[in-house]
Each structure stands twice: as C-alpha cells, then as structure tokens.
Amino acid sequence: MGIIEVSDLSFFYGKFQALKNVTLSIEKQKITALIGPSGCGKTTFLRTLNRMNDLVEGACCQGQVLIDGLDIYQKGVDLLELRRKVGLVFQRPNPFPLSIFDNVTYGLRVHGVQDRDVIQERLRWSLESVRLWKELKDSLDRNALSLTGEQQQRLCIARLIAVEPEILLMDEPCSALDLFATEKIEDLMRELKKQYTIVIVTHNMQQAARVSDFTGYFLLGELVEFGETTQIFTAPTDRRTEDYITGRFG
Amino acid sequence: MTIAVLFFIIFFILKKGLPVLSFKFLTTNPGEMGKTGGIFSTIIGTIALTVTAVLIAAPLGIGSAIYLTEYTRENWVTRVIRFGAECLAGIPSIIFGLFGFILFVTKLKFGWSILSGSLTLAFMILPTLIRTSEEAIRAVPYVYREVSYSLGSTKWQTVTKVVLPSAMPGIVTGIILSVGRSIGETASVIFTAGSALRLPTSIFSSSRTMSVHFYILAREGISMSNAYGTAAILILAILAVNLVTYAIMHRFMRKYC
Ligand SMILES: Nc1ncnc2c1ncn2[C@@H]1O[C@H](COP(=O)(O)OP(=O)(O)OP(=O)(O)O)[C@@H](O)[C@H]1O
Ligand SMILES: [Mg+2]
C-alpha cells in the first residue's frame, strides 16, 4: 500500500467539477509527477492532499484520501498536523518579506517550538538539506526577498523541511526559474526523495521524465493514465496519453 | 501654487517664531497667562494627550481593520462599520468637542482632563486608523496567508505572525498621520481637555496643548511673539512627523515593490 491512497476522488468548485473519480496510489520515498494540459486539475488534485482547498469558498470534495492509512477528510482530523506532515511548495518562490532566519523558523514557531537549541539545529539542518547553509549561514538576518529566484525557492523548501514533513507537494516549483536553476532544483529533489515522498506537478514533460519514478497524466479532471515513468513515456497504454507525450496535443 | 502657499506660510511663521525660540522657551512653564516664560507644560500636555489618544484608538482601529479584512466577507455588518467610520471622518472637529464635552466631561464626570481630551481625539483619528490599516492589510499578498496555512498555522497565527508584520509599515504610517492630526487639533481639545497652564500630573488633570496655547495667546492678544514661537514649534513638530511618515513609506516601497 502506498503512503497516499486516493480512491474515487471528485472535486467541485461550486457546480464545476474539477476532478472526476480519481484513483491512485503514491509510493513512499518516490517522486510522482503529475502532467497534463493547463486547467486539467493538477493543482486542484495536489491541494486536496493537504486540504488547502478547504480555503476555497463553495468547494466540495467527495471520495477518499488515505495518508498513512488515515482518512484525511474524516471528521475531527487535525488539519494543522496534516498540513505540517504534507507540505506544499508553490509555483512562484514566495518567502515571507522577513529575514532568512524568520522564514525558515516560521513553521517551528507556529508549532510551538521554543527551545533555542532545537531551533538552531533545525535551521541548520533545513538549510543544509537544500544546500543553502554554506552560502547563507553568515547572513541569516538578510531579507529573504533579496535572494535570487532559485535561492528563494530553496528557502521555501527549507521552510517546509523545518517542520519535518513526510510528503512534499510541489506545484510547478521550477516554472519561475531558468534552465540552470531548474536543473539544480531537480538535483535537490533526487536528494530529498531519500527522506521524503515527493509529488510534483509540472508542465514540462522532460522534467517529469528526468526526475520522476511514477507519472500520472490528467486530462479535463480525469486521471487518464498512471504508471511507472518509463512505461508512460515509452509504452503508454492510452491513446490520449500517447498523443500528449508525443506532442500531438497540449 | 499650493507649494508656494505652503512655503510662504512656513517661512512666515518660522521667521516670526524662530527668534523667540531658545532652550529656555522650551523648558520653562508659561507665566502670566503665557505672556512670559516658555511653553514647557503645553509640550508635555500635547505629548500626553496625543500618546493617550493613540493608545486608545490604535488597538480599536487595527482590531476593526483585522475584523473587516480577515474575519468577515462583505455583508451588512462591514457596511455599517465602514459607513460609521466615514461619517465620523466627515464630522467637523468642533462637533467632536461638543460631543466630548457632553459625554466625557459632564456625563461621565471626567471633567476637563487629558482623559476626556484623548477619548475625544481617539474618536476623531479612528477613521484614519481603520482605513490605513485596512488598506495595508489588504495589500499583503494572499499567497503569504496560503503559505502560512500550508505550514499548519491557525488563522490567528497567520494574522499575527504574517499579515500584521507585513502590513506594519502601512499601519505605522496611519498612526503617524493620526499623531499629526492630534498635535494640530484645537477646537475639540479646548472643550474637553481645558486650558490649564499647570504641568499635568495625571490623566485626570486638565492640560493645555500647544495648539490651544497658540490659539489663546493669539486670540486674547496676550503675547504675539510667544504665539509665533509656539506656532514655530508646532510646525516643526508636524513637519518632523510627516518626514518620518515619508521615510517609512519610502522604505516600505523599496521593500515590497
Ligand atoms: N478557486 C477556483 N474557483 C473556481 N474554479 C477554479 C478554481 N481554481 C481552479 N478552478 C478551475 O478548475 C480547473 C482546474 O484548475 P487547476 O488549477 O487545478 O488546473 P491546473 O492543471 O493546475 O492548471 P495549470 O497547469 O494552468 O496550473 C480549471 O478549469 C480552473 O478554471
Ligand atoms: Mg496549476
């Protein structure tokens, strides 16, 4: 059984159905890529996994999502704990307009960690995980907005890692970065998958082919095909997937 | 044209007022109704009144702004609050003075005091505080809130640790504008804080502010030179307040845009 088990998940923005009976299983410590044309529901799907969609007015969700065997849409689920465990990296790097230190330790503070030694240690370890420690250890009180785009995105990942999540959801994490920076973030993802389960949404099929172990293809809210990346890219079973990855569509 | 008028006024006042200014003028209490001596007690009165007014109004104003932006959607309650704030903003200060006199000075028996004066001033600056804080809070990008929630924060944590700090420069600007308004206010203060020349000892003492002092000196023709001296200090104080506001806005722009 995977760390995330989604069965028969449908999602509605008011009357509009954005996800249609999605069923899939995501394995622990693997990278799962979700591809598909714009507006097919990739972001929506990602955000159902840590219930960020609850913030949307008039949204409604049916079906089941199990994370570590726990039904996260059950009544009485600790949302704060769920979101700590299932972190989200956004499309654009979006550090708070605060210092680097405050950015990385933000999550710790909201989860009530006050011990200075613990904070220092997590700070260091998070920044090391994203390969920023060496560059930034002497300028922790610099404003995070003064970093480059790539550094900012790394910092955002460090901010997540500081609260010790198990799953990292990444919504087109490289779309605001140049090629060189993208490559470096991809390297980082390969490193991170030793410890974390990663689900990445991407527009870029090469990126999915490069970094992921599993790939799912979404079209108009439907999960058309899901399987090992090599299989999806070399021998797709569905015509629509084939059209998409060979570039005849999308 | 406006700039020319502004410079003319400032120049005129400073030319008449600056020669009167001295360390002694600033640090001695007025004597013979203000004919002799300095303006020390009125400086203290001004500061006490302004600080108390801001201490009363800022939490209310910022609280209302948080409520309006983060905790409700547009509905009749928010419309009533906004309408109320706009009405308050449009009322002439002399009416506030009368209202403060009736409510605080006589009904609640606070007498002519710093307390009555600052409560009245608080009502006057409340609309500005609400509006500037609301704008500042709305200007905080929605995605900061999303990030905060996605890290597992509660709403309250998101508001206090992300939204307010990001909005702080804007909020502080509003507070400083209110300080400027309080320092310059005359009509409502005469009615509520009175015009005692003694150094105030508590918030229940009556006290005269610099604006009131200037008004009385000039109107009663007690001492024109001391009046101009007071005016010069007033203008310098308000200029300083505005400069600080400008500097903060400038830094804010550099940081966020
Ligand atoms: N808050 C919302 N309210 C209503 N409809 C929405 C909302 N967010 C998304 N949608 C709609 O749901 C559908 C799926 O959107 P989603 O953002 O999940 O697509 P996506 O695959 O991530 O697209 P992209 O590649 O452009 O990011 C789209 O048709 C979109 O218009
Ligand atoms: Mg998207």
Explain how this protein is built.
The complex is a heterodimer of chains A (250) and B (257). Chain A has 250 residues and is an alpha/beta fold. Chain A has one domain: Rossmann fold. Chain A is built from 10 helices and 10 strands. In chain A, strand 1 and strand 2 form a beta hairpin. Chain A is globular. With 257 residues, chain B is an all-alpha fold. Chain B has a single domain, classed as MetI-like (MetI-like fold, Orthogonal Bundle), CATH 1.10.3720.10. Chain B is 77% helix and 2% strand. Chain B is built from 11 helices and 2 strands, in the order H-H-E-E-H-H-H-H-H-H-H-H-H. A two-stranded antiparallel sheet of chain B has the order 1-2. In chain B, helix 1 crosses helix 11, helix 3 runs antiparallel to helix 8 and helix 7 runs antiparallel to helix 8. Chain B is globular. The model of chain B has no long low-confidence stretch (mean pLDDT 88). Classes of the chains: A alpha/beta (250), B mainly alpha (257). At the A-B interface, helix 2, helix 3 and helix 6 of A face helix 7 and helix 8 of B. The structure holds adenosine-5'-triphosphate and magnesium ion. Adenosine-5'-triphosphate (ATP) binds next to strand 2 and helix 1 of chain A.
| Largest beta-sheet details of chain B | 2 strands, antiparallel
What count of domains describes the coordinates of chain A? 1
Mean pLDDT of chain A: 91
Which H/E pattern describes the elements of chain A? EEEHEEHEHHHHEHEHEEHH
- Percent of sequence in beta strands of chain B: under 5%
Q: SS-based structural class of chain B?
A: mainly alpha
Q: Specify the helix fraction band of chain A.
A: 25-40%
Helix fraction bin of chain B:
over 70%
General shape of chain B: globular
Strand order in the sheet with the most strands of chain A: 6-7-8-3-9-10
CATH class of chain B: Mainly Alpha
Q: What name is given to the CATH topology of chain B? A: MetI-like fold
What is the level-2 CATH architecture name of chain A?
Answer: 3-Layer(aba) Sandwich
Strand order of the largest sheet of chain B: 1-2
Q: Can you tell me the overall shape of chain A?
A: globular
Largest interface: pair, residues per side:
A-B, 28 and 19 residues
The quaternary state of the protein chains shown equals heterodimer
Low-confidence stretches of chain B: none
> Mind telling me the CATH superfamily name of chain A?
P-loop containing nucleotide triphosphate hydrolases
Radius of gyration of chain A, in Å, reads 18 Å
